Amino acid sequence: MEADKNDAEQIPEEQQLDEGCIKDEPDERLIDEIIKENIQLKEEIQKLEAELQEATKDLQIKEDIPETTMKFLSVESAEDESQFLNISCSFQVSSLVAYELQKGQALITFEKEEVAQNVIMMGKHQVKIEDSHVEVTAQPVLLNAGIRFQVRVEVSKVKVNVTEIPDGLPEEQMRDKLELSFCKSRNGGGEVESVHYDKQSRSAVITFVEAGVVDKILKKKDYPLYINQSCHRVAVSPHIERHVQKYQIFSGISKRTVLLTGMEHIGTVDEETLEDLVNIHFQRKKNGGGEVEVVKCSLGQPYVAYFEE
Fold first, then answer.
1. Alpha-helical segments (H) within 56-138
2. Spatial distance between the Cα atoms of 265 and 302, rounded to a whole number of angstroms
């Protein structure tokens, strides 16, 4: 009887072990599926990031800002001390608007808006070209869409970028090493407020408590990082944040430029001579004109004129 009882007690234990094995197998399959999905998602993200970077290449603007003499007129007291933590500047950027001038057309720009509007209101004009008069029609210049936006650049006085960080330590440990190295005053460091470390890009942003520390660190292009009794040189650079603000798409009608049409069949003069004759005609007040800035005519191939805002 005792043997039977022991067998009876062993059966549930064996069943329990079998059930545990059965439960572990689906869990392992589920984990494998999740790992595969994560790998696929990472690949898709990398692909999308590459496509986004390629798509934005045409929208990137690279322009050298000319040197400008600056004159400081007054000193203003800041409402908040945090305003002194950044050096900031802003730039207004506007695109040129292209307009295609077709054969037999001309663009004439006046110095005053009211003159251009008066020429358009008159509509038809008899322009003397050599021994004959040619009727031209004055029309407003409908411009294509353009863009304008403001770029704000801020250079931090309390943050510094660190790159070329050696790999080999866990993230938390590397953050500690960075904080310990950058707080050493003998190397130009100071009290560290926070460390944002990115293991994948081997870079970090160090934020200091005091503003003057960054200036001392940036006097050199690198900084000593101590790891396991070894000294590594990491690159340091200013922490710059860029913001695009007030992005606008605009279109409209040129206020001082007029489109002249009706000169398709003029073949006896060249473009430069025609521009002079059109200029002379519309300089005269009796013809409804006024002071002219520039005239551009097309008697052959189309031209592209660019308008500024």
1. 113-122
2. 15
Let me know: does 233 contact 222? Beta carbons within 8 Å. yes
Query: Is pTM, for the whole model, over 0.90?
Result: no
Contact yes or no for 228/203 (Cβ under 8 A) = no
Assess contact for 144 and 99: CB atoms under 8 A.
Answer: yes
pLDDT tens digits, 200-225: 999 999 999 988 899 899 988 899 99
Q: In this structure, what token pair is assigned to residue 251?
A: 């279109």
Q: What is the pLDDT of residues 156-193, one digit of tens each?
A: 999 999 999 998 889 999 999 999 999 988 888 899 99
Q: d(Cα 194, Cα 205) in Å, to the nearest integer? A: 8
Amino acid identity, residue 10?
Q
